[in-house]
Structures are given as structure tokens and as C-alpha cells.
Amino acid sequence: MQRMEARVAVSVSDLKKSPSGVMARAEGEAVAVLNHNKVIAYMVPAEAYEAMKRRLGEPEADWKRASGE
Predict the structure, then answer these.
(1) What is the domain partition of the chain in residue ranges?
(2) pLDDT tens across 43-64, in order?
(3) Can you say whether the dihedral through the CA atoms of 17, 31, 34, 69 is positive or negative?
(4) Domain 8-67 belongs to what architecture?
(5) In what order do the strands lie in the sheet with 8-11?
(6) Please, are residues 43 and 31 in contact by the beta-carbon 8 Å criterion?
(7) Which of 24, 34, 65, 67 is the most exposed place for a label (fewest CB within 10 A)?
(8) Residue 17 clears pLDDT 80, i.e. is over it
(9) What number of CA atoms fall less than 13 Å from residue 58's CA on the CB side?
(10) pTM for the full model?
């Protein structure tokens, strides 16, 4: 079974209906995005993402290369 690293989870279809509502419900925490009950992504507030990038010190090109883009 896949471990979920977030307290809030949402299906792709529910996320499409109200992305800002999902983020408001998460109250600043990460949100697990599910497709057929499997985590396919995590969504974090912009401030958290920017802070992660600063802490890691990685330029955008490294992120793209790591994800296969």
C-alpha cells in the first residue's frame, strides 16, 4: 500500500472543481492529489514551494532535469 505524506487528500476531479477551495481547506499544508486512489502528486502553497527551492538551493533547470522534462 502506498504511503500518503499529507493530511489532506483530494481526487483529481474534486481538485478541478475548486483548486482554491482545496488549498483553503488544507490550511497551508500539502495536499495529496489522488487518481484512482493512488497519489499522483502533492500540491503545496506557493510560499512553501518557494521556501523549499531556497533551502535546496537548486536552480529551475535542475528541477526540470530531475523530473525528466
Answers:
(1) 8-67
(2) 999 999 999 888 888 666 565 6
(3) positive
(4) 3-Layer(aba) Sandwich (3.40)
(5) 8-11, 31-35, 38-43
(6) yes
(7) 67
(8) yes
(9) 11
(10) 0.75
